[in-house]
Amino acid sequence: MSLTDITTRVARAEAAAGRPGGSVRLIAVSKEQPHDRVLPVLRAGHRLFGENRVQEAADKWPGWRDEFGPVDVHLLGPLQSNKARTAMELFQAIHSLDRPKLARTLARLAQELGQCPALFIQVNTGAEPQKAGILPDDADNFIAECRALDLPVIGLMCIPPVDEDPATHFTALAQIGARNGLDALSMGMSDDFETAIAMGATHVRVGSALFGARR
Ligand SMILES: *Cc1c(COP(=O)(O)O)cnc(C)c1O
Where are the N6-(pyridoxal phosphate)lysine residues found in this chain (predicted)? Predict the structure, then answer.
């Protein structure tokens, strides 16, 4: 679908949920996409993208920023501590803060660099063993721990289990956010972003619906 098709669907979902237009930000997930699919979206003026890997983003975005001017790029995928410095210099937000060790590394680097991207804590709402994210029961403590480190945590992120109703997971994430005073909710992908908007998403991460299937 075109960028206009997706932004229209976002706007309709906002309206259907009784939310103000523009309350949801569309993250165009450009990971693993051929450049000739991403360039039209940049040329159309979209300036918020998502990537899964630090190295892939480091290869693409500095050049595109030279060409198109400032573009916000958010890291959605897992972050290893040894890539944290590069990530902090490259991304405007990181959606995958998921463990105390990474929190401490980011806090140390934030001091050193004098800056830190906006942070989302990833919550493993389905408690899936193979999936990243803090367990729901540990979320309140981990949020407090990150705040004690002075990290700029603005919200929460989740990736629901593939075989379950995502609405349950979006609602659970929204509840953790509400009781911790975190306003930003990164939830909803190509197949379920309208549901996520109904449940309060502020950031939807749309890849294949916008760019086509990944290679
Ligand atoms: C790949 C990815 C997306 C985009 O998925 P689509 O189904 O292509 O929209 C969103 N969020 C994360 C964390 C991803 O890894």
Answer: 31
